[in-house]
Amino acid sequence: MPDVIIAGAGPTGLMLACELRLAGVDVVVLERLAERSGESRAGGLHARSVELFDQRGIVDRFLAAGRQGPFAHFSFIPLSIGDLPTRHPYALAVHQSRVERLLEERAAELGVRLRRPAEVTGLRQDGTGVEVEFAGDGGTERLRADYLVGCDGGRSAVRKLAGIGYPGTPATVTALLGDVKLTDPPAGIVFGAEGRREHGSFMIFEADRPGMHRLITMEFGKVTSRDAPVTLETLREACVRIAGTDFGMHSPHFLSSFSDAARQADRYREGRVLLAGDAAHIHFPSSGQGMNLGLQDAFNLGWKLAAVVRGQAPGELLDSYHAERHPAAERMLVSTRAQTALWRPDAQTDALREVFGSLVESEEVNRRLGGACTQLDLRYPMGDGHPALGRRMPDLDIKTPSGHARVFELLHEARPVLLDFSGRAGLRTALDGWTDRVDLVEAECQDEHWTYPVIGEVPAPEAVLLRPDGHVAWAAPTAPTAPTAPTAPTLPTAPAGADAAETADGLRSALTRWFGPPHGG
Ligand SMILES: Cc1cc2nc3c(=O)[nH]c(=O)nc-3n(C[C@H](O)[C@H](O)[C@H](O)COP(=O)(O)OP(=O)(O)OC[C@H]3O[C@@H](n4cnc5c(N)ncnc54)[C@H](O)[C@@H]3O)c2cc1C
């Protein structure tokens, strides 16, 4: 019996499987399709997702498969992201099929068991586990595990079987997509606002198959059923309506449709069943966020589920998954709805785009939108304290007893790290009872300030507790408030009367909250 069953081997399911295996969890992935389709919806990774791969020491595989470029935009109003405070201030153009292939290779290296075809059709949970029914080559089978995670896409069977609601807003636009050959292609790519026309918009760019183009049409107020088949003819007709020509399209390879329906699971956990990726949220693919969100869901959930399954942390730790990731996707639904509104083909929207475009020229607006689009600005709600609390740890250069390192290198094994720049023996002692789970790294760092995309510089803490997902779970000293302005950092002052004992108490309570009670405690 595996510890965890994952439904769906898309980017989210594969990433989660890798994270669980890294923590020693026995995991089985059930995938409906007999083999990978090789088709790509997503075309790229944003900076935070690239950082995640860097945190696990596998970023080079993804960099080698893609192309770096300044692709961030808000409804195709370009954002400048080149000076964001990250080692990866770019978008990585890499097709979803390649991301899936690389993740599947990594999953195989780590010993993930992947079964296909295996379509989840039923589930039943009780106090000790979940029994999953699935249809495979040999008919219906059952498998039991401690937990089931539905990473089975926007129409998630797991979500429906678990009775989890999926409220949101319905479609107002129909988009058709085709990877086709063109006998009469435009001279260059037609991307973004260049393709906005009176009756809708179209885009044409290279597909991930040699000699093919990806053609996308979008028409507002024309909502067709998601189940209506997309044919070359329907794509051709839409293209002629919008662009006045079909560019000589023929020999389609991949035809699909999508819409701006935006929905989100009302809860990401129902007992022993959890949801991640498109199973938990869907929205229009404005500025390419869905796959990135799913990867980050998996990164947030993996170490928590592993700790619970291994009996190190109580099941309530899983509630923090909803508390942290639901708001992250919720704000993306707001952003993509706004981007869709800015795309409507009318004179008022043209004016709005012009006004919005001039606002984006302001450095602060650009920084805010860039921070959100790259998801580098995310702060998980962990209460008041040092401004770094809940945010991602920057990949600083540090000096450890074994030599020079980068912070992200400390996270390759997906273990929590207490990173102590203070050299205070008290912190080492406070870690007693957690040394089986948490690594202590005593290091030196030259940086007096850390820089975040939106809030700017914050004073460097003396010590931080890092979760396996690279978010700061505790920082010392504790600053009472967040900084007021990016240009006016305030040094954190230890609260009056704070001493080493208080610091150690604070650390122990964070260790208990995130990594369970102390060994022997
Ligand atoms: C046109 C377009 C462009 C996009 N561009 C971008 C982009 O540039 N960047 C970006 O980040 N996102 C983009 N997205 C969104 C992105 O494609 C999705 O968010 C992403 O695929 C979600 O990954 P997932 O693993 O959660 O779900 P999916 O990719 O849908 O994977 C779900 C998997 O579960 C399997 N499955 C389904 N049902 C079952 C079942 N009952 N049992 C077992 N297995 C099952 C499916 O076969 C599939 O393999 C785009 C989307 C579209 C439509």
Helix count? Answer: 12
* Overall 3D shape: globular
What is the overall pLDDT average? 93
- Give the helix/strand class: alpha+beta
- Helix coverage percent: 25-40%
Largest sheet: 6 strands, mixed
Side by side, the strands of the main sheet go: 8-2-1-12-21-20
Number of strands: 30
Low-confidence stretches: 480-497
Radius of gyration: 24 Å
Strand-residue proportion: 25-35%
Report, as a whole number of angstroms, the end-to-end distance: 30 Å
Distinct small-molecule ligands in the complex: flavin-adenine dinucleotide
Description:
The protein is an alpha+beta fold. 29% of the residues lie in helices and 25% in strands. It contains twelve helices and 30 strands. A six-stranded mixed beta sheet has the order 8-2-1-12-21-20. Strands 15-16-17-14-18 form a five-stranded antiparallel beta sheet, covered by helices on one side. Strands 26-25-29-30 form a four-stranded mixed beta sheet, with helices on one face. Strand 5 and strand 6 form a beta hairpin. Helix 1 runs parallel beside helix 4. The protein is globular. About 3% of the residues have low confidence.
Name the features.
521 residues, alpha+beta, 6-stranded mixed β-sheet, 5-stranded antiparallel β-sheet
Q: Layout of SSEs?
A:
Blueprint: E1 4-7, H1 11-22, E2 27-30, E3 44-45, H2 47-55, H3 59-65, E4 67-69, E5 73-74, E6 77-78, E7 91-93, H4 96-110, E8 113-115, E9 118-125, E10 130-136, E11 139-145, E12 147-150, H5 157-161, E13 168-169, E14 173-182, E15 196-197, E16 200-206, E17 213-220, H6 232-243, E18 249-259, E19 262-264, E20 269-270, E21 273-275, E22 281-282, H7 290-309, H8 319-341, H9 347-360, H10 363-374, E23 397-400, E24 403-406, E25 417-420, H11 425-430, E26 439-442, E27 449-452, E28 456-459, E29 463-466, E30 472-476, H12 500-515
Parallel strand pairs: 1-2, 1-12, 2-8, 12-21, 25-26
Antiparallel strand pairs: 3-7, 4-7, 5-6, 9-10, 10-11, 13-19, 14-17, 14-18, 15-16, 16-17, 19-22, 20-21, 23-24, 25-29, 27-28, 29-30
Helix pairs in contact: 1-4, 1-7, 2-3, 7-8
The structure holds flavin-adenine dinucleotide (FAD).
